[in-house]
UniProtKB/TrEMBL annotation:
The keyword Glycosyltransferase applies. It holds the Pfam family Glyco_tran_WecG. It is an enzyme of class 2 (transferase). It catalyses: UDP-N-acetyl-alpha-D-mannosamine + N-acetyl-alpha-D-glucosaminyl-di-trans,octa-cis-undecaprenyl diphosphate = N-acetyl-beta-D-mannosaminyl-(1->4)-N-acetyl-alpha-D-glucosaminyl di-trans,octa-cis-undecaprenyl diphosphate + UDP + H(+). This is N-acetylglucosaminyldiphosphoundecaprenol N-acetyl-beta-D-mannosaminyltransferase.
Length: 245
């Protein structure tokens, strides 16, 4: 698949439908995949932390989650086809899992979030098989959790530990598992559980989901400072590559 390099992170040149087809095909063939949904914050973090950048290099698919990444791809004149929100990708995969009776494991978020989310999953996706679930605060029990995931033999494993933990967990453990699509999904379980609200369509259509999240969780403002730096770096990157031509 064609990739687009955004400050050293290699994004898939894909639409949501294309990546869904690819992942479905991998599930049917019992193949493994490590999927990252990355926004500018993640790209900036990888640029500061070589270990995390190294982890991302093991991913099979890095998906452009965030208008900032699309903007970045335009700045380097290799526009990516569309933004694919990690949350939307998860919802689509849950529907496919429901249609096909796939096995799904949910790893991450708090116990309270899971208590609210699991009944909703059972109600909304009755034919999906819940292969297992575990909250995301398991320091000291890493081995037990790995064994649980291993024995669950899930087709889809959603890992909601936030970055960089979720990607590090996937990279560290994926070799122990026989099959499965492993996808880092950030705070999506909280949205599914209803404890955090997703931006309504109006905000999303205006590409203002980030602003809506900021208003809901004002403590995130510091993290968002990564965005202007990201845009600045993209322009520097473009200047450097055109100087080299
Ligand atoms: N979380 C977890 N274990 C941890 C730290 C965080 O399970 O050790 C969960 C947390 O409860 C939340 C999610 O990971 O559900 C992080 O959400 P956030 O929106 O901060 O992640 P991002 O989208 O920025 O990666």
């Amino acid at each position: 698949m064609k990739k687009v390099d955004i400050l050293g992170v290699e994004f898939d040149f894909t639409t949501q439908q294309e990546i869904l087809n690819i992942l479905q095909d991998k599930i049917e063939r019992n193949k493994k995949a490590f999927v990252v949904t990355a926004n500018p914050e993640i790209v900036m973090y990888a640029n500061k932390d070589p270990q995390y950048m190294h982890t991302l290099q093991f991913a099979n698919h890095i998906i452009a989650d965030g208008v900032g990444v699309i903007l970045g791809s335009k700045i380097v004149r290799q526009p990516l086809p569309e933004r694919i929100a990690g949350f939307d990708l998860m919802i689509e995969l849950l529907s496919i899992a429901n249609q096909k009776g796939l096995r799904v494991f949910f790893l991450g978020a708090s116990e309270q979030t899971l208590e609210k989310m699991i009944p909703k999953i059972k109600r909304d996706y009755p034919k999906l098989v819940i292969a297992g679930y575990h909250h995301g605060f398991f320091k000291g029990h890493e081995h037990k959790v790995k064994q649980m995931v291993k024995e669950a033999k899930a087709d889809l494993v959603f890992v909601a530990l936030g970055y960089p933990k979720q990607e590090e967990w996937i990279q560290k453990n994926i070799d122990s598992f026989e099959k499965g699509i492993f996808m880092g999904i950030g705070g999506s379980f909280d949205i599914l559980a209803g404890t955090v609200k997703r931006a309504p369509g109006f905000w999303r259509n205006l590409n203002l989901e980030w602003l809506y999240r900021l208003i809901q969780q004002p403590t995130r403002w510091k993290r968002m400072l990564a965005l202007p730096t990201f845009v600045k770096k993209m322009f520097q990157y473009r200047r450097k590559s055109s100087d080299n031509m």
